[in-house]
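Exam revision sheet. Question 4 asks you to relate a sequence to its structure. Input first:
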Amino acid sequence: MEKKNFLRPNRSKSSSRNFKITMVILLFFLTYFRTAVQIYYPENFILPDEVLLFVMLSIVAYLWIQEVKDKNYLLLLHEKLKISNEKLEQEIQIRKRKEHELRVAHDELGVRVQKRTEELLKAKDYAERIFQVVPSAVFTVDKNKYIVSWNKNAEELTGYTAKEMVGKRCVEFTKFPCRDSCHLYDANIEKPISGEECILVRKDGQDLIVLKNADLLKDDKGNIIGGIESFEDITERKMVEEELRLAREELEKRVDERTRELSKAYDALKIEVDERLNAQQELQIAYSQLKAAQQQIIEAAKMQVVGRLASGVAHEVKNPLAIILQGVDFLNTIIKDADEHSPIVLGHMRDAVKRADNIIRGLLDFSSVAKLEVSFYDINKIVTESLLLTKHQLDKYHIKVTRQLQENLPELELDRNKIEQVMVNLILNAAHAMADGGTLTIRTYEQEIIVDDPISGLRSKGDPNQRERIVVIEIEDTGTGISDEILTKIFEPFFTTRRNAGGAGMGLSIVKNLIEMHNGQINISNKPESSGAVVKVMFWI
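Answer key, structure tokens:
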């Protein structure tokens, strides 16, 4: 490194020495010149001795000063050189130490490299052994799809030796789909590739169906350097699968045929079962109808017996009652003034005889088989007239009447007096059920019903396979209702819950008889949502 002189201009030692010699020569030349001039031209000499002395002293002084400066410069230079030498010595020591460290590191690195090389050689040998003994056929390729390695299983599977295959492109012994598109280097295919089917061609020309697995090989920096693929021969498996597929299709075909046969047999069996069920239901219905008809026959026979008995009894009793009534009236005219108790007793006797006469008249009505005097009537008018006839009783029990009568109902073929008797009887029964007051609702409406409707409880009078139209009269009260035990007996003759109030028990039985004479039906039930009963009278249109 070049040292800079900060004391004088840059000048080498030789130039400084030459300058001094020049100044000495100049001083000598001036002394010689003065002496020569004094000797040869004394008259012309004009330079005084003082001037010459001053010049000489000046030169000597300048030379001395320069010498002093040179000595100082040399001393300073020496000090700087000393410092530079010390720094240089330190740098030399540092470099020696670093060289030693580098030598030690180099030796360690060499040992590590040698050790790593041995490990890599062992790993390579281990990988090579695995590569050769792995049960699958395995080969590796470079970035250009050239085969780099080819293991023994690949040789046995394809018939190609490693010497024959290394250096060739892998697509040369493949068919669809590998020949058309190499999925290993396809960026759109996710890696690793697992379970992909491919067709290879053996050396003898035989096609092999293989199951391929593949992945990319990369270096430490993640750069792709090639790929590795393994494949397994599944030709026999595919053949077995194809045979199984054909067998399954054949089995499915047979199962479908058998299923169709069973389905037809099932349909036939179902039809037969349905027919048997229908026949069973028809038998049950016929049995129920037979039982009902039998019961009706028994009831009719019983009613005929009761009717004949009642008719005979009524005729035998009616005349004595008339005589007794006349006797009571005669006694009432004779002894009405005898005492105050006689008229009262005779009044009670008269009421009892009239009550007995009413029972006899009911028996006669019940047993009567007189022909109905029918004509076409508006049922709403009959209901309205019946309400007028019972208005006194309804007002007596403080009963409110609500009418819901459908307009323009078809006229019915009825015996007006008999149906009016039915309405009056049913309205009075409802009024008696509401002794503390209530609401009586009467409805009339037209309805279409299904034959043997289990909801309405109606039985058809005509074709059992068609719907029929009826007119319904509903009488609904808000009384206490009717117990289940009584409901089963209300149509029986002489059954009454008002025997203490003078009831004879012939009202509802006569009502039912009159309605059935008109080919109608009557149904009495309790209201499901509240207290009270509902009477439905139905006439076919």
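Marking note for examiners. The chain has a mean pLDDT of 78.
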